[in-house]
Specification:
Chain A is mainly α. Helix content of chain A is about 75%, strand content about 5%. Classes of the chains: A mainly alpha, B mainly alpha, C mainly alpha.
Chain lengths: ~625, ~100, ~170
């Protein structure tokens, strides 16, 4: 009874071990059963824990699994913590995770490394559950690093292609840069408070005597780590490249769960951020800027998965806006709805790619609505959800974010709202653009591809339907109010309350405006889009080239580092200094030996002379000393 | 005076070992060294009226005889191998 | 009085013959010079009164060692390269070192010797007394030297073996 939380964590680990070690030998049926069954079992256990939580009136449940180290006075344990926030996260991870596992049965059927795929997927689930269930920042960090590892393994799943392998490396290394900030934050907290347990940290900051460390400094350091994991500026560059991995992986890791790890971290440490206005302001600013930035890039992308990737970055920016203005529960609400519709979108894209036999360029699609109806229907529902069309899930969560961006007394402002609303408009625009170009209009497919088009199997379409339904009705479950006892909603100034209804109306208008604009520009087989492109060639090139950020990083950071490594450290340091010293010492030894060995030339006369000289020397020495 | 003579004899003997090339001559110079030492031993034995010096001289005689008895055959064998008495030809142990 | 003259005479002879040893070319002549040195030394011993040693000097050194030496010289062909070029390459350094050596020892000698307890000419070591002292107090040294002689015999046998092997 008292090890349920550990059980949730261990089930996917068992899946990893079984599939990893024996999967290849025991066949695809075994791998599918274990690979999907164990996460579903974990979901069931999580539901049970939720029921227990409700019965206990929301009191958090703490389980200590293992004492990792006892160093001097301090104790480092592997402990699990389950409260309302954790419950939401665990259910998302195991629930959406299980659905994606089921989807993968159909999608990865023809792949030769089937067992390895499921092993890595289960490994990812294990680490993600460690991340959300961990009580201390240390356990969270283990999970944090572990999901980074799993992400690397899965992005570079088809590692025989060097570009895909490089994408995996890029993800891991960019994450690590963020982790430097995370580690510094952990050191700071430990030095100031002597503990890494997050519930204790929150209590210390919320209590009567706040600790000596600056909450803002801590907040910013941890946010650096979060921005690496959750793809905010300037560490977002790995996410578009991560689309090199299999599509279900993109759905699970880079849409629904891993990238929300940073959001979870900030929400979990709300006690710190509530007392850190500077850090919160930074988070809100970075979040809204990232959202706008990514949305502008998404407008000009032509790969179906890249559009969705930039959309994810943009939506994560929205979540950080919510965190920055103190609406932690609302951010988690958006995580919850985003998991449904983004996973549905990605899996739908996977279905399209599967139907077209591998084609990912939307300029070469079109007219698919009637050919693959189920995929089309689910994709359309999810698109509407992300655009914020009521009464779908996305509308509720995005509307709350916009409201608090405007009205929160913790940092909300009309400027923040304006930028966020513009981004929402762009979101609707590019998502409907994607829908139009992929499914409507005349077919621009090549004849071979057109013959190949077929609807996906039930294992794939079934999951799509489930996710679409959740995207539609999920918004009615008001997570922010569920989390309110733990994560209170921010105060709203009294006079601003009148703006609430007008703002709701405005966000609906924005959503429909985006839809209309997309229909207008792309409706007639793209003639107007072409005209736009010709009128603004420079702007188009910049957007299409993603503002050339990757190239800038390469020129400003990567190449100088490589130059220093090569010129200074390798040629001068290693070869000349170290090798030179070693060779020099060896040569010195050799030359000395050579010189000294000339004494032994076989001539007795010389030896006798040395005897005489020795005698003289000893006599002289004796003479001098009396 | 006698001690000075013995010093001179010893020095001449050692010098001879260093400068002369012929192996047999080198052996004879070594005998000269021994004789020089004998002279100093006998002088001190006589001056201090102790028998130890004389005993030591007797032992030196024995050692010199044994030494020469072995050294000369070795030289003979060497000469047969190298076909010469020049010491420079025996430099095989150069390292 | 006559003893000191004779002492000086014998000492001078010994030194002159020793110097000649370094200069003469033919090994046979060198051997004869050495013999002259040895006989002069025997004379010095006799004058000092150490008759035992004087007798043994002549018997062993001149009678056995030098005879053997002359024997070896006569066996070998000495007209080789070392005949024409007498001196090795270490001539100059050797002479310099020898001079330094003598200088140091002369300086030590100049500083004085311990007191002489008896004058030359007094016979101190008669055969009978010497033998008694030798075999009573120094019998251990006697035994050790006999061990040395055994070793020499073994070495001689070994040399014969080597010689035999070389000849085939």
């Amino acid at each position: 009874m008292s090890h349920l939380l550990a059980l949730i964590v261990v089930l996917p680990l068992a899946g990893f071990l079984l599939n990893g070690l024996a999967g290849n030998r025991l066949g695809k049926a075994f791998v599918s059963t274990v690979g999907c069954g164990l996460p579903i079992l974990a979901f069931a256990v999580a539901v049970k824990c939720l029921v227990d939580l409700q019965a206990a009136g929301g009191a958090p449940r703490i389980e200590v699994a293992y004492t990792w180290a006892a160093i001097g006075d301090s104790l480092f344990e592997i402990a699990f913590y389950f409260d309302a926030l954790t419950a939401v996260m665990v259910l998302i991870v195991t629930g959406v995770g299980s659905l994606i596992h089921i989807y993968s049965i159909g999608y990865m059927k023809a792949d030769s490394s089937y067992a390895r795929y499921y092993a890595y997927l289960n490994l990812f689930l294990f680490f993600m559950l460690l991340l959300v269930l961990g009580r201390s920042m240390l356990v969270l960090f283990v999970g944090w690093e572990g999901v980074g590892l799993a992400s690397y393994l899965l992005i570079g799943f088809w590692f025989e292609d060097p570009d895909k392998a490089r994408a995996g490396k890029k993800a891991f290394i960019t994450n690590r840069i963020g982790d430097a900030g995370f580690l510094l934050g952990m050191f700071l907290v430990y030095q100031a408070l002597g503990t890494l347990d997050m519930d204790r940290i929150n209590a210390a900051f919320m209590g009567t005597s706040p600790p000596a460390v600056s909450a803002s400094l801590l907040g910013i350091l941890l946010f650096i780590g979060a921005s690496g994991k959750s793809a905010q500026i300037p560490l977002y560059v790995w996410l578009p490249d991560a689309m090199a991995g299999p599509t279900p992986v993109s759905a699970l890791i880079h849409a629904a769960t891993m990238v929300t790890g940073g959001v979870y971290l900030v929400a979990r440490l709300s006690g710190v951020y509530m007392h850190a206005p500077e850090a919160s302001a930074v988070i809100a600013a970075v979040g809204v800027f990232t959202a706008l930035f990514a949305a502008t890039i998404a407008v000009a992308q032509n790969d179906i998965k890249k559009v969705l990737a930039y959309s994810t970055i943009s939506q994560l920016g929205f979540m950080f806006v919510a965190l920055g203005v103190g609406a932690y529960g609302v951010a988690i609400f958006h995580v919850y709805t985003h998991a449904f519709f983004k996973a549905c979108l990605f899996l739908g894209a996977g279905s399209v790619i599967h139907a077209l036999g591998g084609e990912q360029d939307i300029r070469k699609m079109g007219g698919l609505a009637r050919r693959i109806p189920v995929t089309f229907a689910t994709f359309a529902v999810a698109t509407a959800a992300i655009a914020g069309i009521p009464p779908l899930a996305g509308f509720f969560s995005k509307d709350e974010i916009l409201w608090y961006a405007f009205a929160s007394s913790h940092g909300g402002s009309p400027l923040l709202f304006a930028v966020a609303a513009t981004t929402a408009l762009l979101t609707a625009f590019y998502m409907f653009r994607l829908l139009w170009l992929t499914f409507f209009g005349r077919s621009r497919m090549t004849p071979e591809v057109e013959h190949h088009v077929h609807e996906s199997p039930l294992s794939m379409t079934g999951v799509l339907v489930v996710l679409a339904v959740l995207s539609a009705i999920g918004g009615f479950l008001s997570i922010p109010h569920y989390l309110a006892p733990m994560l209170p909603l921010p105060e709203v100034a009294h006079e601003l309350e009148y703006f609430e209804t007008p703002l709701v109306v405005m966000s609906v208008v924005v959503a429909f405006a985006g839809l209309a604009a997309a229909a207008f520009v792309y409706g007639d087989a793209g003639a107007r889009a072409e005209a736009l492109r010709r009128r603004f060639p420079g702007l188009y090139r910049v957007l299409c080239g993603k503002y050339f950020v990757d190239e800038a990083y390469d020129a400003l950071i990567a190449r100088p580092l490589y130059w220093i490594s090569d010129r200074v450290f390798l040629r001068i340091g290693d070869r000349q200094l170290f090798d030179g010293t070693l060779h020099g010492l060896a040569a010195l030894g050799r030359r000395t030996a050579g010189g000294l060995s000339r004494v032994q030339n076989g001539s007795l006369h010389l030896y006798a002379l040395f005897v005489l000289l020795g005698i003289i020397a000893s006599l002289a020495w004796g003479w001098r000393h009396g | 005076m006698l001690i000075a003579t013995s010093i001179a004899l010893f020095a001449l003997g050692l010098l001879g070992v260093i400068v002369r090339r012929n192996v047999l001559v080198m052996l004879m110079c070594m005998e000269l060294m021994l004789n020089g030492v004998n002279l100093s031993l006998v002088t001190f034995a006589q001056q201090q009226a102790t028998a130890a010096g004389a005993v030591l001289v007797l032992l030196v005689f024995v050692v010199a005889a044994a030494e020469i008895a072995i050294a000369i055959p070795i030289v003979l064998l060497l000469v047969r191998r190298k076909d010469g008495l020049d010491l420079d030809a025996y430099a095989e142990l150069k390292g | 009085m006559i003893e000191s003259v004779l002492l000086w005479l014998f000492a001078a002879t010994a030194l002159a013959a020793a110097a000649l040893m370094l200069v003469l070319r033919h090994p046979m002549r060198v051997a004869l010079a050495l013999t002259a040195t040895m006989i002069s030394l025997a004379g010095i011993y006799a004058l000092l009164g150490v008759h035992v040693i004087a007798v043994f000097q002549v018997l062993i050194y001149v009678g056995a060692v030098m005879v053997f030496m002359v024997y070896a010289i006569m066996l070998l062909d000495v007209r080789d390269r070392s005949f024409t070029r007498r001196y090795s390459r270490m001539l100059v350094p050797g002479v310099a070192a020898a001079v330094a050596f003598v200088a140091i020892l002369a300086h030590a000698l100049w500083r004085g010797l311990p007191e002489a307890k008896s004058a030359p000419g007094v016979m101190l070591f008669g055969l009978k007394e010497f033998s008694v002292t030798f075999l009573n107090e120094y019998w251990l040294h006697f035994e050790l030297v006999s061990v040395l002689l055994v070793a020499a015999v073994v070495a001689a046998l070994a040399v014969i073996e080597v010689g035999r092997k070389h000849r085939g």
